[in-house]
Amino acid sequence: MHILLAAVRRHRLPARMRHFRENATLLKFLLRRLGGWLLMIVIATNLTYFLANMFLDPRSNYIGRRPPLSEDQIDRILDSHNLNDHVSIWSRWWTWAKDIVLHWNWGQSPTGDSVNGQVSYRVWISFELVIGAFIIMTVLGIALGVYAASRQYKLADRVNQAASIVTLNIPVVVAALGIVLLAVKFNQSVGHRVFYVTGSRSADVTGFARIGDTAQHLVLPTIVLVLTGYAGTQMLQRSLLLDNISADYVRMARAKGLTKSQAIRRHALRTSLIPVATQVAFSIPALFTGAVLTESIFNWRGMGAYFVETISKNDIHGVVATAAFGALMTALGAILADLAVVALDPRVRVN
Amino acid sequence: MALTEYEGDSVDTVEAVEAGLPRRKRVSRRALYTRRFMRNRPAVGGLVIFLILVLFALLGGQLAKYNYLDPDFLALTKGPNGDHWFGTDQSGTDLYAETVHGLQRSLIIAIFVAAGTTILAAIVGASAAYFRGAYERIALMVIHFLMVVPSFLILSLVSNKSGGNWAIIALCLLAITWFYPARTVWTLAISVREREYVTAARYMGVRGFSIVTRHIVPNIGSLLVITFTLGVVGAVLSETALSFIGFGVKAPDVSLGSLIGTGADTITSAPWMFYFPAGALTLLTVSMALIADGLRDALDPTSAAGGRA
Question: CB–CB of A55 and B157 under 8 A?
Answer without folding.
Answer: yes
